[in-house]
Every structure is written in structure tokens, then in C-alpha cells.
Design brief:
With 168 residues, the chain is α+β, with helices and mostly antiparallel strands. The chain is built from four helices and five strands. It has a five-stranded antiparallel sheet with strand order 4-3-2-1-5, with helices on both faces. A hairpin with a 4-residue loop joins strand 3 and strand 4.
Length: 168
């Protein structure tokens, strides 16, 4: 085989290898971005809830908010001081971007509290990804009442606790 043809095949193989590496890199960046947006969604929801009035009469307003997924979808009933609501008209804040593209979906991808927010301790899970949002056996994000968001594996104690204190 002539020298020029061997050099051509080497450059073609190198270009193919670089293209494959670029595809893998950009796919991973897209996946990480979706995971970060999921955590941010829960963080923003938690920050709004943290703005609730400490007044006991206002705190009892949490009892009127539905539990589970209905908790996130009825955000207009939250007894919070901030007039800004975290959920826009298309409700993208309650859709996990890891599941699928957000543009075409409705509903809610996060579990809400199984009982009144007023009764939860600060370190108890308030919300979490639905089981399977991030893939089978992978766990997901958990939002505690104090506003912290944790990335949990399916076997983590906090994920197990979220299964007890949150519901669909």
C-alpha cells in the first residue's frame, strides 16, 4: 500500500475516533445538565416553602394543601409570604428534565409530602423524585423541609426515609 493511502486511513480513523469522543462528551454534558436542573427545581420549590410565615394561624394553612403530587400542583394554596410562585403556567418546575423533554409533558414528576408540611421536622424529606425518574434502581433527588437537596442512591437511608414521608 502506498505511503499516501496509509496516511489517509490513519487520518480518517483519527477523525472518526475524535467524532465518537465528542459525541460521548456532549451526551454526558447534556445528561449532567438535566440532573442539575432537576436538583434546582426541587431547590427552588423548597426555597418558596421556606418563605412561609411562622405564624401558627398561617402554618395551619398547610393542612388545606393536598398531599402527594397534588401538593406541588396546588402551589397557589401554599401559605407563603412571597407573591412569586415557583411554577409557571406550563408547570415546568414540577417536571423532572431527566425523564424526557419537558416541552411536551404535563403533570408532576415529584412526590410530595405524605402529611401536612406543618408536621414535618426540618431534616425530614418534603419531596423527592418519583421512583424511576432517573432510571431503574438509581434513586434520585430528595428535598428536605429545611430546603436542602440531596442526590441519593436507591439504598441511601434518606431515599428510604423519603419513601415513607412522601407520596404520589
Amino acid at each position: 500500500m502506498p505511503q499516501g493511502i496509509r496516511g489517509y486511513w490513519f487520518i480518517a480513523a483519527l477523525a472518526l475516533l475524535l467524532a465518537c469522543l465528542a459525541i460521548v462528551f456532549f451526551t454526558n454534558v447534556k445528561r449532567r445538565t438535566a440532573h442539575e436542573q432537576c436538583a434546582l427545581n426541587l431547590k427552588l420549590l423548597g426555597m418558596t416553602i421556606a418563605g412561609a410565615s411562622p405564624d401558627p394561624k398561617v402554618q395551619q394553612g398547610w393542612d388545606a394543601v393536598p398531599n402527594g403530587v397534588g401538593f406541588w400542583l396546588n402551589h397557589d394554596r401554599w401559605p407563603v409570604l412571597s407573591p412569586v410562585r415557583p411554577v409557571n403556567a406550563r408547570q415546568q418546575m414540577v417536571l423532572c428534565p431527566v425523564v424526557a423533554p419537558v416541552k411536551r409533558r404535563t403533570g408532576c414528576d415529584y412526590r410530595g409530602p405524605a402529611r401536612s408540611v406543618r408536621l414535618l421536622q426540618p431534616e425530614e424529606p418534603l419531596g423527592a423524585d418519583k421512583i424511576g425518574n432517573h432510571g431503574p434502581g438509581r434513586g434520585g433527588y430528595v428535598l428536605t423541609k429545611n430546603g436542602e437537596v440531596f442526590d441519593c442512591k436507591e439504598t441511601d437511608p434518606l431515599w428510604v426515609k423519603a419513601a415513607e414521608t412522601t407520596s404520589e
